[in-house]
Inverse folding.
């Protein structure tokens, strides 16, 4: 049932304020304490985390790496499951192994989990489907409570994965003493406001539609982001290519001059994901290098960022303000809507793109 929407993907994008609210509520007590699981997880038991997943779920892991390292000072390695499992990496003692999967049935992710059995100190999964193999075979399974996701392009599962991972990070940071009670309360306050902020972003649907009409004529599109926005650039590029079949690639902004800038000319739209945070000026200077080569920039930023830097850009998409750490969750909305409207404009099969399956149970 598409609940009045044209596609499951549109319905699932629109559901995000509600399901994110549910996911937060499942792990937050009324007193503001984070309770992840009945089985206690003491983050002082671990010296490092490895995170393994595929596709969009791997970008949720990559985002969480920035959070874990910055907020909880805990080193994290992220791997795609198909590489991890055959590399047979050594797993040092006191390693927490985390597997993220919407379906809980992705063959490579499951094989990676099985490889870690008996090697990692603890196996934790972040899954949507409670009775899935990955959930059953983990020591601890944290459900993301996104509800059934039908569209092949993952949307609400991604943002709910991020919410649950962020709450894990806050729990870890508190346990490890890198976040005091007051700072934790600030993070929780921001998190509680997130569903409403996501709703505001969804109200920008017409702007994203207008930008997508321009994008739909492109042959190649680049996505740029820095720091915690780099994984979002990867997610934006994946979403666009999988449903609109436009070639899209993502780069960490700072990598631009190490090669990809050679691609830029007046035919290449460049989507820049840049909230006005500590790295904003750096990203803007990369964006100006793009514009100096006639690249067409779509700048996604907040009002402050737009006011400072949108001179000469091709298109501006203004996001509501949000606490810095939560920007990756909010900026998933324009990534999804740009891809969605571009695909609709091109007339491709949004919910069931060619050559793809919702759950990849073969390797
Ligand atoms: O079910 P999983 O989360 O394990 O699936 C992983 C990927 O196959 C999945 O995220 C894929 O990349 C999506 N089609 C992206 O939208």
């Amino acid at each position: 049932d598409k609940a009045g929407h044209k596609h499951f993907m549109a319905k699932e994008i629109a559901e995000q304020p509600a399901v994110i609210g549910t996911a937060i509520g499942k792990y937050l007590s009324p007193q503001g304490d984070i309770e992840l699981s009945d089985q206690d997880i003491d983050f002082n038991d671990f010296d490092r985390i490895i995170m393994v997943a595929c596709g969009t779920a791997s970008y949720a892991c990559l985002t969480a790496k920035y959070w874990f390292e910055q907020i909880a000072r805990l080193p994290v390695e992220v791997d795609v499951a198909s590489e991890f499992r055959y590399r047979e990496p050594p797993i040092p003692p006191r390693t927490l192994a985390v597997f993220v999967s919407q379906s809980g049935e992705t063959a490579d992710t499951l094989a990676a989990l099985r490889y870690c059995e008996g090697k990692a100190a603890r196996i934790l999964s972040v899954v949507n489907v409670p009775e899935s193999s990955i959930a059953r075979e983990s020591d601890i399974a944290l459900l993301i409570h996104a509800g059934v996701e039908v569209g092949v392009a993952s949307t609400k599962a991604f943002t709910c994965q991020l919410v649950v991972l962020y709450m894990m990070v806050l729990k870890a940071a508190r346990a490890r003493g890198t976040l005091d009670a007051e700072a934790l309360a600030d993070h929780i306050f921001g998190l509680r406001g997130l569903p409403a902020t996501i709703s505001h972003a969804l109200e920008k649907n017409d702007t994203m539609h207008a930008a997508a009409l321009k994008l739909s004529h492109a042959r190649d599109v680049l996505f740029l982001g820095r720091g915690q926005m780099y994984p979002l650039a990867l997610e934006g590029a994946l979403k666009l290519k999988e449903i609109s079949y436009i070639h899209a690639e993502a780069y960490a902004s700072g990598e631009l001059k190490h090669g990809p800038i050679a691609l830029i000319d007046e035919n290449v739209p460049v989507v820049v994901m840049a909230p006005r945070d500590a790295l904003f000026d750096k990203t803007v200077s990369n964006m100006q290098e793009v514009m100096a080569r006639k690249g067409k920039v779509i700048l996604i930023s907040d009002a402050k960022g737009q006011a400072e830097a949108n001179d000469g850009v091709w298109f501006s998409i203004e996001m509501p303000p949000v606490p810095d750490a939560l920007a990756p969750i909010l900026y998933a909305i324009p990534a999804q809507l740009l891809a969605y409207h571009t695909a609709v404009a091109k007339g491709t099969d949004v919910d069931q793109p060619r050559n793809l399956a919702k759950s990849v149970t073969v390797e």
Summary: The first strand starts at residue 48 and ends at 53.
